[in-house]
Structures are given as structure tokens and as C-alpha cells.
What we know:
Layout: H1 2-5, H2 8-30, H3 39-57, H4 62-79, H5 81-100, H6 106-119, H7 121-132, H8 142-178
Amino acid sequence: MKQFLSNPIVRTAGLFVALFAIGFATRMPAWQFPHIYALHGVLAAPFCAALAAWHLVRGGSVVQLVAATALLAVVLGMMSPAMGLSFALVAALTLAVRACLRSVPAAMRSVAVAAVFGALDYPCALAVGLALGSYGPSAEALPMIALLLALSVALSLFGAFVAASLADRRSAKCSNFSS
Length: 179
């Protein structure tokens, strides 16, 4: 079973399913506030960051995470070009952040990439919405956008740190039992 779960294709498919489930679960509460554009991106931030941190700290690769996100972009792009382009942008920026952090120690890099990955959903959805003309904020909406961006970053950091510490604790516990 462990060999099956360590297969890169299986891990990528698992990440895709988890990302899709996170998006679906956070979309429903966001529908309660239709006047807040892309609120589901803020609600998904801690869960996406936690998923990415767990994956990366447990030995997964950024390429698998980006591939799962790109697959999600294709699937969502069939429903809405804005959603597809938003996740394509998340995938590209995650890869760029990972490349920029190549000289950072692996443990710190994993948490940083995971936190950025989680935090990117909301700003990417805003950027794509603005670029495609599906969202045009008013001057009154700017403080709310700034607050939601800050909240997205804070929730993403929280999710990444909690998941990384739990993954580290689990790894340490498993290695103590095997000794």
C-alpha cells in the first residue's frame, strides 16, 4: 500500500481530488455572500496551504502540486474560463516562488511554498476577474479587498504552519516506533 501511495501519479491524483473537494466545500459558504467576489479563495486558503504543506513536508514534490493544480485549472476552465485561468495562474506563480526559494533550506522552503500556494487563490481570482472584466471593484470595495487579502495570507500561514508541525510530529513519532 505504501508503494502505491508513493507513486507520483497517485499522489498527483490525490492532490487534485483534495483540491477539488476543498474548492467545492468552500464554495458553498461563499454563496451566502454573493456580493464578495471570490470569497471562496479566502475560505480555501488555510486548507490549500495545509494540504500543500503536508504534501511537501512528507516528501512530495512541487511539480506534483503544480500538476494537480494545472489539472484543476483545466477541469474548472471547462466550466468557467475565469476559474480555469485563476488556477493556472496559481500553478505558475507557485512554481515561480519555488524557483526563487531554491537556496532556502528544504524544511523552510516547504512551509513557505505551501503558505504562498494557499494565499494565492484569492488574489489570482481577483486579478483574472479584473483582466476578464468579470469583476470591477468600486472605491468602497478597496478596504474590503485589502482586508480579505490580509486574511487570506494569515489563514494560509496558519494552515501551512499547523500542517507542517503535525507532519513533523507524525514523522518523529513514526521514527521513534521503528527504532
